[in-house]
Every structure is written in C-alpha cells, then in structure tokens.
Amino acid sequence: MTSNPLPANSSRLGGCTLTGAISVTSHLRDTVTVVHGPKGCSHHNVSLLHASWLDNDHAVLPSLLSTGLSEKEVIFGGEEALRKAIASAAGGEGVRAVVVLSTCVVGTIGDDVSGVCAEDYGVPVVSIPSAGFLGGTFQDGMNNALIALAGTAGPCRKERSVNIIGEMNLEFEVEENYQEIERLLSLLHLPVNLRFVHNLGWDQIARLGAAEFNILRSPALVPVGEYLKNRFGTPYIASFPHGLSATLSFIREVAALCGFDGQEALREECLRQEEMLGQFSDLRQVQVSLDRIHSGEDELLAAEELAAALDLVMGTPGTCARLPVSAAVGTAGTRRMLHRWRRAAHA
Amino acid sequence: MPECDNPLWPCAMTGAAACLAGFEGIAVVIHGSSGCYYYPTTLLHAPLYGTFILEDDVIFGSEDRLQEVIGSLSGTGKRIAVITTCVPALLGEDIRSMLDEHDVILVDSPGFAGDVETGYAKALAVLEPRVDPETHGVNIDGACLFDPFAAGNVREARRLLAMVSVPVATVFSSDRYDRVHHAAPYTIGTNGDFPSGVGENLGGMLGLACVRETFTRLSDTIDGADCDPVFSELEQQEERLVRACDKFLQRYDPPSAAIFAGASYALFAAEALHQYLDAEICCIGTRNAQGESRFRTEQASSLSRVRELIATHDPDLVIGSSFERSLSQEKAFTGIIPPLRGRVRIYPAPLAGINGTLSFMESVLNSCMDKKP
Q: Which of A3, A41, A114, B189 is such that its CA lies 20 to 30 A from the CA of A346?
C-alpha cells in the first residue's frame, strides 16, 4: 500500500483515544476494563493487545468486557447495558476494581457514563473518558487513563525510590527499555517503586505518591507529570534518554534530584559508552545517510551525535547505505541500533 | 446484544472492507475515525483510505471532509467505495446525496450492525454481482481478505479447475472489479461463511469428499469438463493421507479435539479429524452462527466461553486462532482462523481443495506428535 494514502492533515493521525486508554488499563492485573460500545471496538483492541503481548512473550490474554451495543441500544440508549456489564465485571472472582472506557458511539448517543459508574457495585469503578476520536488522540487516551487511575491514590510517605510513568506498553521493546532505565538508576542505587502502569496490581496504585521523583516515558506525558506533581508533590524527568549524551544528562539529572554527587555513575557510564563505540570502529569513515523520514527530532539528534562519535561520513541519500533511526533508549538501546547500522552499512 | 468479554470476531465494517478491498479497481474509503481505519488496514494488508473524521466533522457535518477525501481519489481511474462506520451512521447524514456528483459505491455497514460476515455480504450485495450467460467457466467464491487461507484456497481452486480444463470466471472477492458483472452461471465455494450467492452453486471445496462431490457435479454440468485427473489425484493423495494417519494411530491414541473457527472451517476440521484419525470431537465453538452438524456445536465468540470449553473438555488438540493457542499452551495446536499471531506465515497455504486437506492434516499430525511424550 502507499505509505500516505490520505490527504495531508496530520492532526487526523493521532490514533484512537480508546486504544490509548486500553494500552494502560489492560496492564492492571486484578481489574476488568469495560468497553462501553459495539463489540467491534473491543475486538480491534483485543486483537492488537494479543499481538503486542505475544511479541513480548507475555502469554496472558487481555481482560476486556464489551457492553456489546447493537442497533437497539444505539436507538434506546446503552446505560442499562453498561450497568449490567459493570455489575457482571465487579462480581468476578478476585476483581478489585472496574475501569469503564467509553467509545465514539457512546460519545455520540450521549449515555451518562459517569452517572452509571457512580452507582454502588461493591468495588471501585473508575470512568475514563476515551470516546475514540471524540475524546482526542491515542496519547490523550493514555494521559486520561493515567490521570484517572492516579486520582484513586492518596498521599503516602516518601521513600528513596522512583516511579516509571507511562511506558509504551504496545511497543516491541518495552521490557528492554525499562531494563535500561532500571540499570541506569541502579548506578545511583535507586530502586523502582512502581511501573505506572505496567503489569500492576490495583492495590499497588496506593503507593504512587511514595516515590521521590517520577520518570516519564516521553514528553507527551508532561500533563500526567504535572498532575502527579500537584497531587503528590513529586517532581519529574520528562523523558527516557535517547542517545549518548542524553543518557549522561539523564544520570546527572537523577543525581541532582536526589542530591547525589553522581560522578562515579557518570564515569562508569562514559566508560561503557566508549567501549561500545570501540566495538563498532569498523564503521569508521563509512559513507551513510540517516533515515530522516521515519524519525522524530530527538531520535535524529541522537543519531547525528552517534554518527559523529563513530566518525561516519554523511553521504547523499540514495547513493549510500541508509541507516535506520529509532528511539533508542540509553546506552543499551543505542548498542542495539548500532547492530542494525552495521547490517545496513555492510549490506 | 448481551455483553461479551474479549470479543474474538471482527465487526461488519471490517467485513465490508475485506470484501471490497479484494477487488482490483476499487478504492475503499473508511468513513470514520482513525481507530476504525487502523484495524482493517493492519488485518487485511490491503490499501485502504480513510476520512479520519474528528469532533468538528461530527458537530458541523462530515460532508466537507468526505468530499475532500473523495476529491483526492478522483482521477485515479478507480471506482470509489465508501464504507460508513458507527458514528457517521448515527449522525443520520444523507451521505448518498452528499456524493451525488460522484459515481461512488456506498456501503452502510457500521460495526454495530453485526459481525464480519454480515458486512461482507452487505458489501457484495451493493456491488450487484450478475451472471453473464456469455461467460464460460466457473466462479470461485468464499475468498475474503480477512481469511489467512483465502489466497491459498483460490490458488488451489484454480489449480484443480485447470486440471479439468474449466476456465475460472469471477473470483469473489479477489478479482478485477469489472468481472463482478460478468460472472459465469456456475460457482464453487472455498469457504461457506462467505458465499456470493451468484450463479448455481456446484458445491464446496472443504474436505476430500466435498471436492469429489463438487467435481462430480461439475463433470455432469459443464460441457467438456474431464474430471478424471482430479479424481485420480484425490485417490492417490487420500491414500497417502490414510497411510500417514494409520502410522500415527499405530503408535498413538486418537486425539480428542476442541475446534474453534467460523462454522464452515470448523465443520471441515471436525469431519477430517473424525474420518482420518478417528478423533473424538469433544466440542466445536463457532465464532459465527453455528451450522448443522453431527457434532456438538455451539456459538462461542468470547474469550471466556472458549476458555470454559477448553477447561471443561480438556482436549489433546486445539484447533483455532492464536487466542486459543494462548489458552492451551501445553496442548497440540493447529491454527485455521485469524488471528494467527506469533507464527511466521509466508507461503499461501490452503485449507480448501486436495492440498488444503493435506496441509491441515499434516499440521495436525506434526503438532500432535510434537506434544506426545
């Protein structure tokens, strides 16, 4: 298919709010996510989650309950169907909470979702606005879900630990990216308090305010970071680091937030990066170009820095090897990207 | 419609897209949100276009946006087909009159209208397929882009028809668009869940007995069709299949099998397992409405029901999708319906025809032997 089959209008390409919200709530272990809408909306997302979880060797199947709206509910309203679905979900064995997500159809027919969710079902019911394109973009869905879930946690005593906020649960290398952040934090002897939200139990959310600071997966989560700062007084770092110098800056920033010196951790990481670059010295003076079409600004800056550190020669696109540019997290992510560069350069 | 946990079957909009995108010469536009566009695009691996409507289009009307997308596609030489999704269908806009100036196919197939088969049938009906008495040969139907075996099925049906010197007329839905209106008077089917209803149905292609019956009818109906080469191959290949299954049974007990698929594929699998391996068919859960069967069959389109059936019957062998595989890690598994995630599939394997049965049984035997101690 063509890579861009649409008239240019990038604001329409922000993805589905519902999918964004589900990418968060489906990682709550002992809750049920009720999707208030036609079955098709749930199936799309079950299939997507199933595919991405298999990619991540995560054999657990999602737990979505669709209210299964048909033409009848579309005409006469779907509130009764929602009420039944929440009650059914709440009565499930071991269910600690129910999360309710709305779809475009519900946004259009105007069901009072919040009103139905406010009734007593014996367990907490959290309503998250996620009416597909009527609710914004994929990122809005993620942010809404994270903020709504954070709103269920109360204040607690601070401990020397860190929260990881808003991991991209659908990305292929989500675990590897987390492990790299965990490794970088371990250089400063900092443990992770919560992965909010990644494979998390409902009761664990109560500990959200205990972390000394939060690390956001990407700057698009700044509204979530601000919410957590206001609610729990927790400062945040706005993104996982991409590239060599950003990784070192990340260590400096973490150290500063904790009042550490951090010089030993920096020295150790610098040494690791130098050793890594030495392993790819065969790429020196190779003429290459960077794939600028499929790259974000931060990734591209990190890739240019890496190319300079390796002494690569920038050639004219189309006449030399085109190197893939990905959002490589930390030094380990950069190493994986370098293996792909070597393959492309020597192809 | 009752609530449904983890629904396992796509919606009518996806079915309509699967039908229309199978025809060369049609540019398919999903009139809806990016979420509604994304899923059929990734599932069908076909070029689709979208209007990607936003809140403003809902509040002020979607005509301008629809015109913008249609306008960008005019001049491509393709007939444009617009499929309405849930929200445009709810808005009650008169999309037909909006598109008066364009020669556009309009399919009203919102997701809440039903399942994938409903949308497929609706879209095919809108295309108004017709028999052309001047067209020679036989149509092939049942090909749906949603089905991972569709390409292999069509290839196998073409091979068998070539063996009996009968030309292939129209393939529903995998052909040039103009051939929809020049179908032959006779049709053979590769998947009964996606029938075309065009021409006289000579029979299906699922299972060796079915192939034999269909080609017997074809031989009686089509002048000049010499079906002996197909009957000869049927005999030879069935003998090989029986030998392989006998060898398995010399060493192992027949498996007990739980089967989950569309009704057509499910019954094919049940008959083949029962006939060649004397397998116990402990349950069949169909994603769509169940057809008539001598086996215990019920509709099971949610993950919880599938899980219950597998837990209750504790089969040795599970047939289904990667959803079922995830629920039965320790059991032998063969995939026959989407999604088939977590496996590399490059070759267009069939389920229909002679090779379809051989391919299915080969996979079953290998997966059963892999799981035996």
A: A3
